[in-house]
Amino acid sequence: MTDSCAAGGPRAELKRCSMARGCLQGVKFLMFAFNLLFWLGGCGILGVGIWLAATQGNFATLSSSFPSLSAANLLIVTGTFVMAIGFVGCIGAIKENKCLLLTFFVLLLLVFLLEATITILFFAYTDKIDRYAQRDLKKGLHLYGTPGNVGLTNAWSIIQTDFRCCGVSNYTDWFEVYNATRVPDSCCLEFSDSCGLHAPGTWWKAPCYETVKMWLQENLLAVGIFGLCTALVQILGLTFAMTMYCQVVKADTYCA
């Protein structure tokens, strides 16, 4: 009887070890696949950022206070950070390394909390952000067409042409820039050289800030879906990381 119990002990331990290793291998595959896609997504974001940075700054910042806060730079930083997190996750999954898995979990959690905090603050201080943004954009108008600000110049030209608007809050914003009754040619209803010198009746009247803001509100559903998908991906990554960490601990316990 004693011999039977003694024999059953090691068999039970071996069975638990085998089950723990089996679960670990399944989670390991999912964790690696997730992080590989995560890393490839970072590569794509980084590639787009580099491409934008190399195309005459067409999508450069409109802000005079934060000249480095351009779409290209944001994509480059975001892509690099996503690639780094994905790399840590991939190596952690392959090596079954508890330290790397925890590092991945903590980094992704910090990003998630930062995004949530920014979103809450944005909705809490919308009016103040609106006022500050308009003041800053008006300051940026004075850099239009100046040396070293090709990106800002192109960005304003694209926005005014595509959104059929002129100036931040009114086309008269440009009068202070030029110290004259004129606007950039991109404000014209029908584009032609020096058309900004013509009468106001030939210019777009809509304010760019409100026009772009209305466009964003009309596409709020798409923005919300994108944000929700991003949050779900991050939650999925957190779940995979913690699940695999627990499975590694179990495997180490039963198979020690």
Global geometry = elongated
Order of helices and strands: HHHHHHHH
Helix fraction? over 70%
* Counted beta strands: 0
User: What is the residue-mean pLDDT, rounded to a whole number?
Assistant: 83
* First-to-last CA distance: 27 Å
Oligomer: single chain
Helix run count: 8
Low-confidence stretches: 1-8
- Report the structural category: mainly alpha
Pfam family, one: Tetraspanin
Subcellular location: Membrane
Transmembrane segments: 29-54, 74-94, 101-125, 220-241
Protein name: Tetraspanin
Overview of this protein structure:
There is one protein chain. The protein is an all-alpha fold and 256 residues long. It has one domain (2-254). 72% of the residues lie in helices and 0% in strands. It has helices at 2-53, 71-95, 98-124, 126-141, 150-162, 173-178, 208-218, 220-254. Helix 2 (71-95) runs antiparallel to helix 3 (98-124). It is elongated, with a radius of gyration of 27 Å. The model is unreliable at 1-8 (pLDDT under 50). Pfam families: Tetraspanin (PF00335). Belongs to the tetraspanin (TM4SF) family. This is Tetraspanin.
